[in-house]
Amino acid sequence: MRSNEDNAGLPPVARLLLAIGMVAIGLVLAWALWSHSETSSSLAAAVMTELPRSGVSNPVTAVLLNFRAFDTMLELAVLLLVAVTVGGLRDPREVSAFAQVKQAASVSPLLQSLARDLVPIMMLTSGYLLWIGAKAPGGAFQAGAVLAAAAVLAHLSGRPWLSNPGDWRIRALLVLGTGAFLVSALALLLVTGTYFRYPPALAGAWILIIETAATLSIAAMLYVTFCAVVPMMPSRR
Amino acid sequence: MMLILDLVLIAGLVTFATLTLTARATFSSIVLFISTGLLIALAWARLGAPDIAIAEAAIGAGLTGALLLAAWRRLQPGTVDPESDAESTSGEQQGAGDAKQ
Amino acid sequence: MSTALLFGLCGIVLFVLGLYFALTTTEMLRRILAINIMGNGVFMLLIAAAYQHDVSGLPNTDPVPHALVLTGIVVAVSATALALKLVCRAHELAAEQREEGDG
């Protein structure tokens, strides 16, 4: 454990000591788990009693978007931070190469037809997951992930949704999620006097609006970071 | 019966994780990691967390895999740099571009 | 052996495996994979702790850890993307420096 700073090519002795240390950590953790396996500290009852007032009937969505909305807002802020950092790491010369992906004569026809059939279905699935998140498993995160996967597939098949990573539209989408949370919190501060206490009658619609914004934001962020990592295709073959 | 299924799932998870971390080639490592992600999605479904199973299947197996493979391709020795590809071409870089396929 | 305990132990094993390889490997991409496996172990521990049965034997899972893990998965993928971008950028800059050194 002490030697984790300079571990370029650890000698076998250090590896052995490290392995022994790891086993020790594992045993301590297992003992802790074992000794606490009987104690129950579930918040399920608390969530279930409050669930009718949250505006949705899926407990996970209720926790994410209502009971712990502040956490979710900060989580979207983390995503925004990552997108901004990745943008800052971009080589300025990359932008010119970026637009050339469009031509993409090298993409196989199989991938192209697959993307043509699958991308609309994935977008539909994303919308469905967003809508069903109020009642059944689903929600903003899953919908955003599926939407981002659709964008990635379209990108790989040579029809990127984004020709310039500095486009103002993509930037607007990136701040949309955090922005919607902030605006809603401030509006609620004016109306009800607290940041994240939704009026029960309007909570369902309110949550759906924020979730839609969060979905678009999550998808945009995942797509932007993917675009930053993906190698540029050779423009000429 | 459930216990046997649980044990099979856990054994598979630990095996795949070990294989991911010990595979010789980085490419096999990444592919095994994607498979581990799918097994983990199964484990979430088993543990009564379908929300997380959906997210894991889409993110852990899909997007992370795409990201890792993209980065892997970019880190290959001889990969065309985006800027050099945009601005200059030489026979050597053409060859590198073909080798990526 | 209850299901929660079994999967909790599995989470611990994944965490320890990931930690060991994250500390010993020298290849950056593999280290990122190891850290991801570590994170998956932590998630599994949380979800296993949330898996409980009430007195009637019906599953009675706690949604709060589920929500935490859901945000955790998304944060993990963004952290992975950031790490990959940093590794790629470092690789490119090193290549540029080598070229300058050669020429």
Structure write-up:
The complex is a heterotrimer of chains A (237), B (101) and C (103). Chain A is 67% helix and 0% strand. By secondary structure, chain A is an all-alpha fold. Chain A is globular and about 60 Å long. Chain B has a domain at 26-75. Chain B has helices spanning 2-22, 26-46, 50-75, 82-87, 91-99. In chain B, helix 1 runs antiparallel to helix 2 and helix 2 runs antiparallel to helix 3. Chain B starts with a helix and ends with a helix. The relative contact order of chain B is 0.09. Chain C is 83% helix and 0% strand. The radius of gyration of chain C is 19 Å and the shape is elongated. Chain C is an all-alpha fold. Classes of the chains: A mainly alpha (237), B mainly alpha (101), C mainly alpha (103). Chains in contact: A-B, A-C, B-C.
Structural class per helix/strand content of chain C? mainly alpha
Q: How many whole angstroms does the radius of gyration of chain A measure?
A: 23 Å
For the sheet with most strands of chain A, the description reads: none
In DSSP terms (H or I, runs of 4 or more residues), the helix count of chain C works out at 3
Structural class designation of chain A: mainly alpha
Distance separating the two termini of chain A:
50 Å
Greatest interface and its residue counts?
A: A-C, 49 and 41 residues
CATH topology of chain C: Helix Hairpins
Measured as a percent range, the helix fraction of chain A is: 55-70%
Question: Which SSEs are present, and which pair or pack?
Answer:
The complex is a heterotrimer of chains A (237), B (101) and C (103).
Chain A: H1 12-35, H2 44-50, H3 59-67, H4 69-88, H5 94-100, H6 109-132, H7 140-156, H8 168-191, H9 203-229
Helix pairs in contact in A: 3-4, 4-8, 4-9, 6-7, 7-9, 8-9
Chain B: H1 2-22, H2 26-46, H3 50-75, H4 82-87, H5 91-99
Chain C: H1 3-24, H2 28-50, H3 63-102
Helix pairs in contact in C: 1-2, 2-3
Q: What attributes characterize this protein structure?
A:
heterotrimer; A: 237 residues; mainly alpha; 67% helix; 0% strand; globular; disordered N terminus; B: 101 residues; 5 helices; disordered C terminus; transmembrane helix (chain C); membrane (chain C); NUOK/Mnh_C1-like (chain C); CPA3_antiporter_subunitC (chain C); transmembrane (chain C)
Short overview:
Chain A is mainly α and 237 residues long. Chain A contains nine helices and no strands. In chain A, helix 7 (140-156) packs parallel to helix 9 and helix 8 packs antiparallel against helix 9.
